[in-house]
Amino acid sequence: MRAYIPGYDLRIPGSLSEALGLLAREPGIWQPFAGGTDLMVLLEAGKLYHRRFLSLAKLADLRGIEVSSDAVILGALTTYTEIRNNFVLQSEFPLLCSAARETGSIATQNRGTLGGNIVNASPAADSPPALLVYDAEIELISARGVRWLPYHGFHTSYKKMQIASDELLRAIRLPRRAKPWRQYYRKVGTRKAQAISKVCFAGAALMEAGTIRDIRIALGSIAPIVMRATRTEDALRGAKPTPVNIAIVKETLAREISPIDDIRSTARYRLRVAQNLLEEFLSQLAR
Q1: What digits encode the pLDDT tens for the residues 38-84?
Q2: Residue 144, φ and ψ in degrees, nearest 5
Q3: Which of 192, 189, 213, 191 is nearest to 201 (CA)?
Q4: Which of these, 9, 19, 150, 190, could form a disulfide with 52 (CB 3.0-4.6 Å)?
């Protein structure tokens, strides 16, 4: 009789130090995961090629939402439901709450995590555009120590990030802004709910006397990584959102981004939608 050999190996460390110790001893061998929502999709599709997994579910050090006078810090295991239900996030970071509402079903929102959404590194993820707009920072931790880095630039190419094989994403920091910013979020998909985005747009602007004093624009599903439209932002700072200026910066955006063709949509469609969402955002600022 042949012995049963399991297809996968799973470890569930009870502490952060235990998890980091295992990653330090065997870097690249263990694949950490949080909620497991994307992992289960890959398993069902027969595309789960990694064989040894490290569950982070019991690590209390990766949970919780801390609010201080200058920032909100979210543990990497913060779920979309916890984001949606947090009063400070609702009032000051509504783009992130909108992204949480747009992410899958209620069951997915109850289990899926912000850290998992980041490290899964999908260019179609719903929360990264909001994080870019909010100038988020992320904390990476390993047995070697801790380091903080801007989220902008963390993703370097498709599924590639500035994270070492022995590191875990521990927290996400959102700086609180002293002045109110006008904010806008739109996800365009095949259907209204539970769809992977064809274009995801997040924007925020600081307005003074009808002029754009500062602005952030981020887009998902148009490139190998979620991106900030920094050239378009530069063209808008100090300008008024008039019809003429909007027409000009729509062309600036077209020169800055290089939308992709894939099974969900075409580059031409994505470019047109991205321009239309930019126009809608700026038109709202003019009101």
Answers
A1: 777 777 777 777 789 999 999 999 999 999 999 999 999 999 999 99
A2: -85, -20
A3: 189
A4: 9
Q: What is the DSSP string of 161-190?
A: ES--TT-EEEEEEEEPPSS--EEEEEEEES
The amino acid that residue 185 corresponds to is: Y
The pTM of this model reads 0.92
Q: CB-hemisphere CA count at 13 Å for 233?
A: 18
| 277's tokens | 């969402």
Give the per-residue pLDDT at 273.
95
Cα-based torsion angle of the residue sequence 17, 21, 27, 31 in order, rounded to the nearest 10 degrees? -50
Q: What are phi and psi of 152, to 5 degrees?
A: -65, 115
Phi, psi of 92 (to 5 degrees): -110, -25
Q: How far is CA 33 from the centre of its chain?
A: 16
